[in-house]
Amino acid sequence: MAQKYKVFIDEKVIYFTDSEIIDVPQLELTEPLNYQRLVELLVEPIYQIVSPNPKKAKKFFFHYFTKIKAAGGIVERATELLFIQRNGKWDIPKGKMEKGETARETAIREIQEECGLTGELTIERKLMKTYHCYFMFEKSILKKTSWFVLNYEGSKAVKAQTEEGITSVKWLKRTALGKINKNTYSSIRTILECYLIS
């Protein structure tokens, strides 16, 4: 079975794969880099690193990055889905895993905190995992996020966690996904694509 990891660096992507992807340039790297050097190096929107052991190659590549874990998910309520707006873009609620938490516990807690939900929130199924790189507090970060599909039963009332930079929380019809895709991150578009075919 083919192994492939998709890592987002801003709006660019690196695939770590054991099977070459046709028409995608290969990135040759003999030593790990930090975030700033990596961003300078990436000219094309998509690259691949081909290795017989993609997981090991990814680990080597991001050697200098601080690894953190997070979880979140797409929340369904009847015919609507829950979205947040942060930094002027549509996003899906998520947050960092606390010590002793499972990914499932983190997803439920973070969605409740970020969106102010008070009713019962349950996980329906696993969706996918994403990897995202960024720079914060003078550190190169590699964040691994576990995504779930959740069901919510309760009041539609929501409240944005403004201290996390969230400006609004909204229940939107599935037909609004086109609108979301026009003003969101490439990683979120990937999650929504996975949701629609799952």
- Morphology call: globular
Computed CA radius of gyration, to the nearest angstrom: 18 Å
Into how many domains do the coordinates divide?
2
What kind of sheet is the major sheet?
Answer: 10 strands, mixed
Briefly note the structural class of the backbone: alpha/beta
Instruction: Write the CATH fold name of the largest domain.
Output: Nucleoside Triphosphate Pyrophosphohydrolase
Question: What portion of residues is helical?
Answer: 10-25%
Task: Count the E strands.
Answer: 10
- Spell the H/E element sequence: EEHEHEEEEHEEEHH
CATH architecture of the largest domain: Alpha-Beta Complex
CATH superfamily of the largest domain: Nucleoside Triphosphate Pyrophosphohydrolase
Number of helices: 5
What oligomeric state best describes the polypeptide chains here? single chain
CATH class of the largest domain: Alpha Beta
